[in-house]
From TrEMBL:
Domain Glycoside hydrolase 35 catalytic per the UniProt entry, residue ranges: 34-259, 260-314
Record key words, sorted: Glycosidase, Hydrolase, Signal
InterPro entries, sorted: GH, Gly_Hdrlase_35_cat, Glyco_hydro_35_CS, Glycoside_Hdrlase_35
Name this polypeptide is given: beta-galactosidase
Amino acid sequence: MGAFWLSCFGLLMVMWTTTRGGVEGGQVSYDGRSLIIEGQRKLLFSGSIHYPRSTPDMWPSLISKAKHGGLDVIETYVFWNLHEPRHGQYDFKGRHNIVRFIREIQAHGLYAFIRIGPFIEAEWTYGGLPFWLHDVPGIVYRSDNEPFKYHMQNFTTKIVNLFKSEGLYAPQGGPIILQQIENEYKNAERAFHEKGPPYVQWAAAMAVGLQTGVPWVMCKQDDAPDPVINTCNGRTCGETFVGPNSPNKPAIWTDNWTSLKNGSFVNYYMYHGGTNFGRTGSAFVLTSYYDEAPIDEYGLIRQPKWGHLKQLHSVIKSCSQTLLHGVISVSPLGQQQE
C-alpha cells in the first residue's frame, strides 16, 4: 500500500454508527455521493480479511485491531469450493463458518461487505470454483451457458438464503450493507465473444432478483447494469477509474492498493492477508498471503503502516460532513502554482 498522501479536498471517504450490542442495521440505498444507511450518507473505510485464511480463534482479535485502526467495514469473498466441495454437500464449519465470522464483525460494531462471486480469483485455487464443475456435461464457465448458470445461481441463492435465515442483512438488523456478484469479469469477457455480455446482464438480474435489500456491485465492469454499481479494483483508482456509469451511483473502490483519492467507500486489499492453508493457494502463490497488509499473517499489527492509516482515517473522518454534503470546486492558484 505504500505511503499515503491525501487531502480532505481530494478524497470522499466514514463514520460508522453502533449500539452497545454491535452495529445496528437499517435500510441501505445510495446516490451519486455515497451509500446511504438509514437516511444518512456514509463515508466508509473497509478492509479485506478472508475468514478461511485465519482461524476462528483469531477472528475477534483481527476484527478488533481493524476497528481500532479506523475501519468501518470488513470485506470478504465467499469461497465456493470450500463450502460445496462436492455437489450438494455443504460445509460451514470451523474456518468455513462464514456466519460466525459475520456475527463477529457485527459484535465489534462494524459493517460487512460480502463478495459472493462465485468466481473470486483472490489468488485462490481455481478462483474459488469447485472442481466437480468439470464433470458437468456441456459446461462453459462464466458465460451465457445454461449448466454453469444453473449451478452458479444455486450456490448464490444458497448463500443469500443462509444470510437471510440468520438475519444478517442490514434491513434485518444485521451488518451486511454491500455485496458483489461476479469478480473482475471485464478482464475475461472478450474471450467469451457473444456469450459474455448476456452473462453480465443475467448475473446482475439474478442477483438483484434475490431481494436482499442491500446494493450489489460488480468490480471492473464499467457496463454493470442498473441498479448494480460498477466499482474499481486497482493501484490507482483515483487516477484511472472513469467513474460510475450513472450519476446516481457512488464511486466505490472494492480493491484499493496504493491510491486513496476520491471515492466514498474504500476497501483495502488486504488489511490482513493471513495463510493459505493446505493447498488452497493458486499456482506460484506462497503459503503466507499478502505480507504488506497492516495486520501481518500472525495477527500482529505492522507498524508504521497500521498507525499511519489510523491517523489518516481520523483526519478524513473529521471532514466527512463537508466531503459528503459540500459542493466540490477547484480554484487555480495561478500558472506558477500547483
